[in-house]
Write a structure and sequence with these properties.
Chain lengths: 199, 188
């Protein structure tokens, strides 16, 4: 029976830690019984190791067969489901996506309405300035258009006046000629018949 | 110590991405050890070779399930253990597997009647190992010949560390008694 502080077989099989090994070695150095027991274990181990390993009769080798090889996609998928860590990451990704979708689908909270109102005022101011500028441009354009139209109408009126003056002059000339004919007719009496026609 | 330009972890990663050549290199590093482990369990070369091929095929098919490359050895031996005991169940379906000794335990590891270990010492050791129970023999194989730690053995055998130690220490006591006459003659 061994009196070693630790099992001699554990020491023999190198299953003890460094400190424990030193304790056993110190004890074996001092205890003849344990030293003999350890020597017997070593001798038995050496005897057992005299049974040599055999060479394998036929070497084993595999060849790649594309027909039976799984596709890269199937290998990835198989690896994905066979690895708990990847599956965990995949689940976490799905959960994150679900949270994002849920957050986007929810109606905006009250605080967000207040936040939106501030930029809304700025937008209104910006829109007012923009309208004034647009209005000024419209007025300028209208003035230009009115001026051009007025100028055109003035020209047309002047041309019409000129035409009316010509017409009036012609009428005046015509009246004076008719008046002259009337005066001549009164002075020389009715027109006489020719001599041949009196017969 | 053998220098390896490419570590097993790199080969495992490449093999998991479908690199068959990387897996073949991995097989070449481990096939002899796995074969000898299965040879101890089955005591039959043909069975051991067939099982070794099955083990590496299953390992290739399930390599992507191996999260930690540093655990490759216990993982591979766990497959080997399962394959061996699956074969035992198929051959002796009505018996309790735990009580089953592997085939050809009475006359040593034989193929076609020829002894695998011709020298006297090897015969004596093989004979002593055959007298152990299959669980004790497997524990000795994993510890003495394959060099696994107790935790790794517990993972391979799917049992508590205390059970592993119990099996191994009982086996070691039996082997000491069995091999004592040979050791007394100064065989070492």
């Amino acid at each position: 029976m061994s009196c070693s502080p630790f099992d001699l077989k554990d020491y023999f099989f190198q299953e003890l830690g460094g400190a424990e090994r030193k304790e056993v070695e110190a004890h074996v150095h001092a205890c003849q019984t344990c030293r003999e027991e350890l020597n017997r274990l070593r001798l038995t181990g050496t005897t057992l190791l005299s049974l040599r390993e055999e060479e394998i009769p036929r070497r084993i080798a595999f060849v790649s067969d594309q027909i039976f090889e799984p596709s890269p996609w199937r290998r990835w998928w198989s690896g994905f489901w066979n690895t708990p860590a990847r599956l965990g990451f995949g689940s976490a990704g799905l959960l994150s996506a679900a949270l994002v979708v849920f957050a986007l689908a929810r109606p905006a909270p009250v605080q967000q309405v207040r936040l939106v109102q501030v930029p809304a005022v700025e937008t209104a101011q910006a829109q007012t300035v923009s309208d004034a500028a647009i209005q000024a441009r419209i007025e300028q354009a209208a003035d230009r258009a009115v001026a051009a139209r007025t100028k055109q109408l003035v020209a047309e009126v002047a041309a019409e006046r000129q035409r009316l003056l010509l017409v009036a002059a012609e009428l005046d000339f015509s009246d004076r000629r008719e008046q002259a004919r009337t005066v001549a007719a009164l002075e020389y009496g009715p027109p006489r018949q020719p001599a041949g026609e009196a017969k | 110590m053998i220098f390896r330009a490419v570590e097993d972890g790199d080969l495992i990663r490449q093999a998991a991405r479908g690199n068959v050549e990387a897996f073949n290199l991995l097989v070449s590093r481990w096939e002899k050890r796995v074969y000898n482990y299965l040879l101890r369990l089955t005591a039959n070369r043909e069975d051991a070779l067939d099982l070794t091929q099955d083990v590496f095929l299953k390992a290739y098919q399930n390599l992507r399930k191996l999260d930690d490359g540093a655990r490759f050895a216990p993982w591979l031996y766990r497959i080997a253990h399962n394959e061996a005991y699956s074969m035992f169940r198929k051959r002796r379906p009505e018996s309790d597997v735990a009580d089953l000794p592997p085939a050809a335990t009475q006359t040593g590891i034989t193929v076609g009647g020829s002894s695998v270990f011709p020298i006297e010492l090897s015969l004596a050791v093989a004979s002593a190992l055959e007298r152990l129970t299959p669980e004790q023999r497997e524990a000795v194989t994993l510890k003495i010949y394959q060099g696994f730690k107790f935790e790794e053995m517990a993972e391979i055998l799917s049992c508590p560390v205390s059970t592993v130690k119990s099996r191994l220490y009982t086996a070691l006591e039996l082997l000491k008694i069995e091999l004592a006459p040979i050791e007394a003659r100064g065989v070492s």
